[in-house]
């Protein structure tokens, strides 16, 4: 599923609580100039190995990467699920914009760059993620 967004300048960029001085993003399905797509969903796990085993057995997940603090899997429909441990990454929804990178980007071990942002009502944490080639994740 691909979501299209229209960017509107409505947030107070002088507000210290506005961590990234981000624009408010409003869905506009007719605007093809700024595209966003779901990249992954990250859920917290207290035991990565056990969670990976469950996802493989129950959802036929294919493991892309796994270590003791993080795992990335792909479901049969192509959806990616990340397993994260407390203190490494927050549970979040990964969004991949088709625009040029913005925000306070941090490099990750897979070669991607991203930053985290809470929605205005603190209902969810979003990770805005870019890959150098805008292709898929590249792990050693």
Describe this structure in words.
The protein is mostly beta strands. The chain has a single domain (2-130), classed as 2,3-Dihydroxybiphenyl 1,2-Dioxygenase, domain 1, CATH 3.10.180.10. It is built from 1 helix and 10 strands. It has one helix spanning 48-59; strands at residues 2-8, 24-27, 35-44, 62-66, 70-74, 80-84, 92-97, 106-107, 113-118, 125-130. Strands 1, 2, 3, 4, 5, 6, 7, 8, 9 and 10 form a 10-stranded mixed β-sheet that branches. β5 and β6 form a beta hairpin. The longest helix is centred in the middle third of the chain and has 12 residues, at 48-59. The radius of gyration is 16 Å and the shape is globular. The model is unreliable at 1-32 (pLDDT under 50).
> What number of domains?
1
Report how far the terminal alpha carbons are from each other.
Answer: 28 Å
What order do the SSEs take from the amino end to the carboxyl end, as H and E? EEEHEEEEEEE
Structural class: mainly beta
Please tally the helical runs, counting DSSP H or I stretches of 4 or more residues: 1
CATH level-two architecture = Roll
CATH class: Alpha Beta
- Based on CA atoms alone, the radius of gyration comes out at 16 Å
Under CATH, the homologous superfamily reads 2,3-Dihydroxybiphenyl 1,2-Dioxygenase, domain 1
Average pLDDT figure = 76
Task: Indicate the overall shape.
Answer: globular
**Largest beta-sheet details:** 10 strands, mixed
